[in-house]
Design goal:
two-stranded antiparallel ribbon, 21 helices
Amino acid sequence: MTIVVHMFVVTTGLFLVGDAIKYLLVSADASAWPKQEGTYQVDNNPKTHTHTDYLKLRLRTLKSNLLVTEDHLHEHLNLRYQLIAVDLWLYGTYFLLLMCLVLVSQDKLLYYNTNMMTKLFSKNQTYSLGLNYVQSLYQTYQFIESALINSFNPNATETGTHGWIYGDHNSKLGVVRLRQIRRKENYHLGWNGIRYTSLAYMPKWELPYKRMAYTDKYWHIYEPWLPSSVTYTTFEKKFMNFDHEGYFSDYPEFAGYITMLARTRNNSMKVLNYLQANNWLTKETIVLFLDFTLYNADANIFSICTFLLEQTPFGTVNTDAHVLSVKMQILDQLGTLGFTIAGLYAFILIRFAKTLVVTIWYEPAKLHNMWNKMDLVILLLNVLVAALIITQEIIVSHLLAKVEGASKLEFLDFRRPARLHTLSSIMIGFLVCLTTLRLWKVLQFANVFQLFSAALYSAWQALASTALIIVIFLMAFGFAVAIINGNNTGNFIHIYRSIITSLCFSFGFSSHVTPQDLFYGGEIIGLILYFLLAFVLAQLLINVFVSTINGYFQYAKSFRDARYVRRINFLQFLRVEYAHILNHLTGKPFFYRSYHRNNRTVAENIKIILDQQQRSGTKNRHHAFATSRQKTGDITDEVKKQAEYKRRIGRLFTIASIMQTQMEILEHLWLTTVEERLAATSDSDEDEEPGDEYIA
């Protein structure tokens, strides 16, 4: 697998860096040295074209004229369709391979693992306490002992506990890390947030802190009372600097006081008893994080678990179990199909990059085009995703190499590659989104996309004004409902949540909102608020927005029909542009259609087919005539009929020329055959010697 990865990296570097250097040297050599005159070769045996070859060439030309009509002579339109065909092939294959690569790299087992782990740790089990049933901060010790120490005890028979209740397939990598964040004394929750303490304490949180000579030797005794901000590396400060979302506030990752449990049960219980005896968790503890990593060897899944226990100002504890299931070794799990798709994707990506670079290199002004900017962003996102995946693989390999030799009190932080995995997933999501939007320009040959683009371009001012009115009304309504009912219902507890709830209700998601949620300010006020929410916002304003879009669509459609221009569509262009490929395919035996008589003669079958075509043509003409009279009037219909008449007359003349040419070819071939026979007869007569009949 490592050899395949190295081959992929070397090949990519060869195409992206090596070719650029090669062409730079070639261009420098061509500019410094004059070009040599080329040598020409003369064909010593040229082919002599006969009159038959000329007739066959004329026949092929006339057959091509049946496809290339007068409508195909619009050069500007043909060039536009040709660029669309090239872009459709390039971006279409790129989009399909990107979708296939995303589907191959996804695994539905990740969802089931996350769901199972969350339920397993959140609810009470037979031998362990669930996280959701921790009501006070002092029950945390009981939860840690039952769920994080006894549950991962392999020596169950020796201690009398029931070990490995989470299954033998789950192995704990490293140890469990406990991190608490403490607020400053005499400082409570307010509008300015929470201020955290970062002082160094003695055991039992005693001040002043005294620096002992043997603190570093016995660091695990003083570590729970020392701030953790000085222990982080530069890499962690760059990639792990985020906040955890709690119920009352957001808590930083680089803050608090850290301690570790041990690998064995006895040592872990010593650490836990030491913390409990010295009152490590007190009323100043506002949040406690429990971090550890599980590895499922059967499914190759890493489970990064982060449990949050937040102590509220009311003395209760709010808990949250966050489990992130990832497959960090992406390259090892792709398989044969995945590597094949990845190789094809890399090849198409190189073509995509080459097309973009050549376009910008020769025409730098095209960089100001929005679509070219989007292509550049897509290329940069691909490079960033590849860099993140390679960095993630390197970090995971180093961490797995440290698993066997890790000490008993070493925390293996698999959240760093997990953060890179999450960041790469976000970038892949944006990459898929931008690639899908990029197809919008390619699909502009279709009338539907042209109509939609024209309608949005003409309606953006009206839509922006209507959307601004809806946003203003939505914000005003959200403020009013949050002020009146926010203290009594969870749907309107915050201003942002109130606005989001109102917006969801206006779009039809009304199952979670009841009229009782709006009646805490009185029944009359509640009826008025519910009327505004259900009628004005959900019905009136949203329907006005939709009606505005519909009106501009009808206007754009009528404007398009009024400006009727006779021209070929994209499929007709492809039929002519790639006629040689279609003719080659239709000439294969599996395209031949057998003739079925159905107990009728050939003349009867031809008459039935002609009658069916005449009836369908009459019906289509009547339908087109009625539609054209309703939409574009009689003038446009007469133009269409005149153009169709001219096209048919031209096809009849072309068919007559084809038949005449075929007759000339047959006549010429017949005369050639007669001359060859006469020449052969004369040659045979000359070969006979005189007097042979007398000898016979």
